[in-house]
Design a protein that fits this description.
- With 488 residues, the protein is α+β, with helices and mostly antiparallel strands.
- The protein has three domains: 129 residues, Trigger factor ribosome-binding domain (Alpha-Beta Plaits, 2-Layer Sandwich); 100 residues, Chitinase A, domain 3 (Roll), CATH 3.10.50.30; 170 residues, Trigger factor, domain 2.
- It has 13 helices and 15 strands.
- The strands form four sheets. Strands 7, 8, 9, 10, 11, 12, 13 and 15 form an eight-stranded mixed sheet that branches. A three-stranded antiparallel sheet has the order 3-4-5.
- β8 and β9 form a beta hairpin.
- α3 crosses α6, α7 packs across α9 and α9 packs across α12.
Length: 488
């Protein structure tokens, strides 16, 4: 496909009436072929005539500036300049043609790349004769039509807050100020703290990994950095120190050993120690120390926090349904290597979103462990959400303005009790401005979509399952990385 059609005129008239030189188009032959999901193979051929033209232009520049013994600048003979500076001129010709051709291909063909093209510039040669050729792979946005979202029907979970819910949250609040005390006798109950050795086993009985002397709270579910034990509460309730029991652990898809991905394995749990949590006495001295005047005021604050939490869960449930519908209506594939490269940033971004919503730290840790254990699937979904929402944003003219960024930074500063200047400096230093803009764009687009959906309120009264989260892993390969991320 030839791109060599030149304009009829090499000048254009500006609004003020003066003529300005218009950049000349290169006579290129460009071939673009599909190279897989979201990938294009681009081959560019630059004819000899363009090489010779650029050589003459570059040579004139060298003639004007070159320092040649015995001649004043700009007066050295052409043949001498060619002989003395041929390599430098050739390098400049190659670089200029590469940059201009890439710019022209981007403008003419609008490939919409999502990463820098894979081009080995050093391997491109400027031939002595004939055309200059080079090819590259470009990762591009998936091609699909913006999905229809108006009139989507979603179920909005509605949950009434009962006194028992406030009682539970009230006790959980007091647990922050509780004291662990040994329990030498008796059996483990949900809410107790165990110190145990965990041994994860393959089907043949060989050891996958051992975690020694780890303390955790006995809850219905235990999550670790590459999986979970969904019924550990049932398995260990009633156990005594010195006893060993078995449970089933479900491994995530992010474990490095392929044969273990998504597999259920046996875990032996040997309990060494047992402690219980003693809640503080709620008297005037304690209430004053935490900034409340009465138990009623404290319970009111607990109820408000619970209301915010339920509202946040409601928003997430609604948004999840909308995104599920959009993904189902917009099938497209993404390259596996793109998904793999984005896994770590996906975890960080999702955690940042949870913090912005005011989710409790223990719930964030549980969600973070769940995401990390199935990082590939979570990232694949996150990328699909991004491309779909970006397509809708483009179709609806939704953009991120400077004011949006400023408001977001101000909100972040308020949450972290820092100055706006300090937060902005940190974001810029860490190169997170684009990521923040992407997050804002997705949120604005999703909010726009939610304005046109149809809601059906559905009452729910499902008890919240308490989850304990560990920084350790069932497989040793991811333990160090998980520990490092948990500290960030």
């Amino acid at each position: 496909m030839s791109m060599g059609e030149e304009r009829d005129s090499n000048t254009s008239v500006s609004e003020g009436g003066s003529e300005t030189a218009e950049k000349r188009k290169l006579d290129l032959d460009v071939r673009i072929d599909d190279a897989g999901a979201c990938k294009k193979h681009v081959k560019i051929t630059i004819p000899r005539s363009e090489i010779e033209r650029q050589f003459e232009e570059s040579l004139k520049t060298f003639q004007k500036e070159a320092l040649v013994p015995g001649f004043r600048p700009g007066h050295a003979p052409r043949t001498l300049v060619v002989k003395r500076f041929r390599k430098q001129v050739s390098d400049q010709v190659k670089t200029t043609l590469l940059m201009e051709s890439l710019e022209q291909v981007d403008k003419d063909h609008q490939l919409d790349p999502i990463t820098q093209p894979k081009l080995d510039i050093a391997a491109v040669e400027l031939p002595e004769e004939g055309p200059m050729e080079f090819d590259m792979e470009v990762e591009v946005r998936p091609e699909f039509a913006a999905p229809t979202y108006k009139g989507l029907k979603v179920q909005r979970p509605v949950r009434a807050i009962a006194d028992k819910d406030v009682d539970l949250q009230y006790d959980r609040f007091l647990e922050r100020y509780g004291q662990l005390i040994p329990r030498s006798e008796g059996e483990a109950r949900i809410g107790d703290f165990l110190t145990a050795d965990l041994t994860f086993l393959r089907d043949d009985g060989s050891t996958i990994n051992e975690v020694k002397e780890i303390q955790f709270r006995l809850q219905p579910e235990l999550r670790f950095q590459d999986g979970r034990i969904p019924e550990i509460g049932k398995a260990l309730e009633g156990i005594k120190p010195g006893e060993t029991r078995e449970a089933q652990a479900e491994l995530g898809s992010a474990v490095s050993e392929a044969d273990l991905r998504g597999k259920t394995v046996k875990v032996k749990i040997a309990v060494n120690d047992l402690k219980e949590l003693r809640l503080p006495e709620v008297d005037d001295e304690f209430l004053d120390s935490i900034g409340f005047e009465s138990v009623e005021e404290l319970r009111g604050a607990v109820r408000e926090a619970l209301e915010r939490r339920i509202a946040s869960q409601q928003r997430r449930a609604v948004r999840r349904q909308v995104l599920d519908a959009l993904i189902a209506a917009t099938p497209f594939d993404l390259p596996a290597d793109l998904v793999s490269r984005q896994e770590k940033s996906t975890i960080s971004r999702m955690v940042m979103e949870l913090r912005r919503e005011g989710i409790a730290p223990e719930e964030i840790r549980a969600r973070q462990a769940e995401i990390r254990a199935n990082a590939h699937e979570a990232t694949l979904r996150s990328l699909k959400e991004f491309f779909i929402l970006a397509k809708i944003a483009d179709a609806e003219g939704i953009k991120v303005e400077d004011e949006d960024l400023l408001l977001e930074i101000e909100a972040m500063a308020e949450r972290s009790d820092e100055s706006v200047r300090r937060v902005r400096a940190r974001i810029e230093k860490e190169g997170m401005v684009d990521a923040l803009a992407t997050e804002i764009l997705e949120r604005k687009t999703l909010d726009h979509i939610l304005e046109s959906v149809e809601y059906e309120d559905v009452a729910v009264d499902e008890p919240e399952v308490a989850v304990e989260t560990l920084d350790e892993s069932a497989t040793p390969e991811v333990a160090d990385e998980a520990d490092e991320e948990s500290q960030s």
